[in-house]
Predict the 3D structure of the following.
Amino acid sequence: MLRRSADSLNPPHEPGKVIKESRQLFHLAFPLMGAQLAQMGMGVADTIMAGRYSSADLAGVALGTSILWPSMMLVFGVVQAVTPTVSQLNGARAYADIGAIVRQGLWLALAASLIVIAILNNVAPVYTLMNVDPVAVAISVPYLQMCSFGMPALLCFFCLRFLADGTGYTRPAMYIAITALVFKIPLNYVLIYGKFGLPEMGGVGCGLAQAIMMWFQLILVLIVVTRKRFDYTGWRSKFSWPDWKVIKPLLVIGIPIGTTMFAEMGLFSFTTLLLGQFGAAVVASHNIAMNLNAVFFMPPMALGMAATIRIGFRVGADEITGARTTALIAFLATAFVAITGAILIYLFKEVLVSLYTTEQAVMNLSITLLLFVVFFLFFDATQSVCIGSLRGYKDTKVPMLLAIFSYWGIGLPTQILFGFGYIGEPMGVYGFWLGLAAGVGTAAILLGARLWYVSGNLELINQLAFQSNRQSVTIPTTGENQS
């Protein structure tokens, strides 16, 4: 079994090596940025096109996504365990183990999709409990039912994409996402407005288009990963039934990842549900601001994903100081990107909002909420890259606890106290956004401290690398580095 030596913490930080590592990181990150922006573009297209149809449809789609994404992230994280696992195996040149991980990851994806399907088809009681505007609910419920048809395809797509990502081949993710976006926009138009003899579905058409694109992306990624380039992993060399010995390590890493994602996304979505009682215009404004925040969050998120891949590879290759250098590069790059994004939002907030709606009341409130985004985008971005770096070390349990505390122990109480006026006058939607900022800021500080501690602790790095009790692997003595 490969162990990390003390010497691996002490090589000098040569400028040439830092530059080379920066190039490696950005070589991984730029395609992921394109992929994340294109994926986000599909959500933006839904929001803009539903908003142009009517504010009620915009609110319905917004409420639907407030259930869709937290539910999906909860199980998506389990599948995402494939990325750091494959990247560490790739760094250690334990190529024979990669195939087994991917095959079992596909079984996990299928099982996870059943959970999401059950949630998406039983959300009406939640809306009733939350006293959400029934006009928006009438659109949201069928929207989610349409989306549920694509869940098995989407989670299997991500598992196979993580095979490519984990082995350092991130360009297919970008090409697939861009292709899907190109087809999604006209498909949305046809289904929303009922062209070519099809029924006019409004916002519900966005859900059907989403499901179709999920299956389309699965077909595209299958074309990629069945190429000879991936034969060395042996992922399709044989059929495997579910194997608990392989699935358990993925769950050990993946369940905390999913819970962490749910903790953050859940607070953002729960905020949307709480705001549902203030009417469709408030929900629409909130969704526009959140959507723009998400667009500018995608590049930092991609840097975090690249850090997971690269740090995992370097830990597997026994380059522990190098892994810490990668984390620092990723953090500094993310800070720069986030500050630039905040400046752009502030300068062009009116123009950006006008892309989503023509209703003046919705525009005015959305512009005001974007000032909160300007403030907390830096913290949102840096917490993302810190948590991505920690995943490269397979450190997922403690970050999960820090995220739960930050978002639900700090963020939610702040929202309730200020939003509903338990402290001072009720601030309404502004109080809820103040709570979001408090939660994100706390997460950034705590996760940054955790990354600093983990990246310099050799004993903990060894413990985390083998926390899943994986059987020893045979490290080939020949073969080229695949990352």
Q: What stands out?
A: Confidence is low (pLDDT under 50) at residues 6-10, 468-483.
